[in-house]
Specification:
single chain; about 150 residues; mainly alpha; Hypothetical Protein Yqey, Chain: A, domain1; Arc Repressor Mutant, subunit A; 7 helices; about 0% strand; globular
Length: about 150
């Protein structure tokens, strides 16, 4: 089953169970997928759908941080609940050590040319499995130590 098909099935199930939060998040996700398809004028494959989900995860993480700074704990709780639903559609997230090991392999093959060249090689391999900000921090650490 495709990623979009799974989201649609999960939406039907959430509606049957009257789980409003889950249904709302899945509707929003399907809407974002459709908007991206319209913008790109083609049907999205599972990799592109993972990109859309990753973008939504990033948006929710940023919102959580903004709400924390604004002392809006009620909205932080809501965003965290929505984030956990979205995370269920991404592959298992890599640990810092796994990211570090992957980055070291790329640095060894590419050489220490610069952060941009390492990130360009590394990010396609880690798509959906790791947060880009965390990957960037680890690459910076490794390059500064080299």
């Amino acid at each position: 089953m495709t990623c979009e098909g799974k989201i649609r099935e999960d939406l039907k199930e959430a509606l049957k169970q009257r789980n409003q939060t889950r249904a709302s998040v899945l509707r929003m996700l399907l809407s974002e997928i459709k908007n991206t398809e319209i913008a790109q004028q083609k049907h999205l494959d599972d990799d592109k759908i993972l990109d859309v989900i990753s973008k939504e995860v990033k948006r929710h993480r940023e919102s959580i941080e903004a709400f924390r700074q604004g002392n809006r704990s009620d909205l932080v709780v809501q965003e965290k609940a929505e984030l956990s639903i979205l995370m269920g559609y991404l592959p298992k997230q890599m640990s810092r050590e796994e990211i570090r090991a992957a980055a070291r392999r790329i640095i060894e093959t590419v050489g220490v040319k610069g952060k941009g060249s390492v990130m360009a090689q590394l990010m396609p391999q880690l798509r959906g499995k790791a947060d880009g900000k965390e990957v960037s921090e680890i690459v910076s650490e490794l390059l500064s130590a080299a």
